[in-house]
Design brief:
Structural class: alpha+beta
Protein name: Transcription factor E
Largest sheet: 3 strands, antiparallel
Distance between the termini: 10 Å
Order of helices and strands: HHHHEEHEEHEH
GO molecular function: DNA binding; translation initiation factor activity
Number of domains: 2
Strand order of the largest sheet: 4-3-5
InterPro entries: TF_E_archaea, TFIIE/TFIIEa_HTH, TFIIE_asu, TFIIEa/SarR/Rpc3_HTH_dom, WH-like_DNA-bd_sf, WH_DNA-bd_sf
Keywords: DNA-binding, Initiation factor, Protein biosynthesis, Transcription, Transcription regulation
Family: Belongs to the TFE family.
Radius of gyration: 23 Å
Strand content: 5-15%
């Protein structure tokens, strides 16, 4: 449930690529029943401040919750953390559906529209027929003619990504239901 490309992309969106390994270790510790930041730090050997920072990011994403208790002797607060599996699954599902809709929309757009690019530097301009006609089929950057854009590679890439996402999400659902 944690080692899935869609889960990785979702978690990376929350914490960034640099903390992906750490956040996965923290989630696994929470799943395993380790419920305090110090205990997670001891088990994972991740710096305590990093553990705390990432736990709060999980809390902000509604994936983890905590209870705060005050020690009567020391007057220090202890935070007991809990992994929210249902919210985790729901947030990943929303992330997947949003990404799938974006990719499908981009694919539909490429299939249903004619695009033009600058004949000298394709990075200068890419626009649909309407936008290109506004510039009279000349690049607004360098004033060279625009030429029809061959979207075969881009369409193929989007189709492949959609297929892979569907397969990975199905594996995620199977792991959740185990």
């Amino acid at each position: 449930m944690i080692n899935n490309p869609i889960v990785n992309d979702f978690l990376e969106q929350i914490v960034g690529a640099d903390d992906l390994k750490n956040i996965k270790a923290i989630i696994q510790a929470l799943i395993d029943g380790i419920d305090t930041d110090e205990a997670i730090h001891e088990k994972t050997e991740i710096k305590l401040n990093t553990v705390r920072k990432l736990l709060y990011k999980l809390h902000d994403a509604s994936i983890a919750n905590y209870k705060r208790n005050k020690d009567p002797e020391t007057q220090w607060f202890t935070y007991t953390w809990r992994f929210e599996k249902e919210e985790y699954v729901e947030e990943i599902t929303k992330f997947y559906e949003h990404r799938l809709n974006e990719r499908q929309s981009a694919l539909d757009n490429l299939e249903n529209n004619l695009y033009f690019v600058c004949c000298m530097e394709p990075e200068h301009f890419k626009g649909d027929y309407t936008e290109s006609s506004e510039f009279e089929f000349y690049c607004p950057v360098c004033d060279y003619e625009l030429e029809p854009y061959d979207a075969k590679k881009e369409k193929s890439l989007l189709k492949r990504r959609i297929t892979i996402d569907k397969k990975n999400f199905k594996k995620f659902e199977e792991a959740v239901n185990e």
